[in-house]
Design a protein that fits this description.
- This protein has one domain: Aconitase, domain 4 (Alpha-Beta Barrel), CATH 3.20.19.
- The chain is built from eight helices and seven strands.
- The protein has a seven-stranded mixed sheet with strand order 4-3-2-1-5-6-7.
- Strand 5 and strand 6 form a beta hairpin.
- It is globular.
- 32% of the residues are buried.
């Protein structure tokens, strides 16, 4: 995982509500255990036609979406079944954060464990973001603030351990492995 401390990017807006994990990455792509290449499957049923050609009218296929690292979604993104492939696909596509007024708990937890920052904001901030697609905003993870043009900074909450892991580019297993020498020292003392 790449460390996330500050994200400054234009936004991609997908105002649909109840975007479930099967829409984020359809079940037929769940046969892989690798994160690499899943960005191609991101929103596959929306991005491509029946012949596999990109739909010109889908936002992620438009030139203005290129390079954007922040996805602003409608209410209740990530609902549906639990699948780590959903945040894997978003990250592999290039997203580092997803913003909404409501993010499903399982998707939120899977995102935090896989290098994607889920941010829940108030209705007013969300409305502004939806109405201003492509706005350049800044997320400061250390201070848990979202800076939106011509508006006061917005605070968001994130569990401290998840923030630590994201800022250090490490998942839970990586964190445990980084403590291996301390664990071995403790076990040695305990045996003695």
């Amino acid at each position: 995982m790449n460390p996330i401390t500050r994200i400054r990017s234009r936004t991609v807006v997908m105002p649909s509500s109840n975007i479930d994990t099967d829409q984020i990455v359809p079940a037929r792509f769940l046969t892989t255990t690798s994160k690499d290449g899943l960005g191609k499957a991101l929103f596959a049923d929306w991005r491509y036609d029946a012949n596999g050609a990109p739909r010109a009218d889908f936002i992620l296929n438009k030139p203005e979406a290129s390079g954007c690292r922040i996805l602003v979604a409608g209410r209740n993104i990530g609902c549906g079944s639990s699948r780590e492939h959903a945040p894997w696909a978003l990250v592999d596509f290039g997203f580092q954060a997803v913003i909404s007024t409501e993010i499903a708990d399982i998707f939120k937890n899977n995102s935090l464990k896989n290098g994607l920052l889920p941010i829940v904001v108030d209705e007013s901030t969300h409305s502004w973001l939806i109405e201003h697609p492509g706005a350049e905003i800044e997320i400061d993870l250390a201070s848990s603030t979202l800076n939106v043009p011509a508006r006061p900074a917005v605070s968001f909450s994130i569990e401290p351990f998840a923030r630590f892991c994201l800022m250090n580019g490490v998942d839970e297993l990586g964190f445990l492995l980084s403590k291996n020498s301390e664990i071995e020292a403790y076990e040695s003392r305990r045996r003695a």
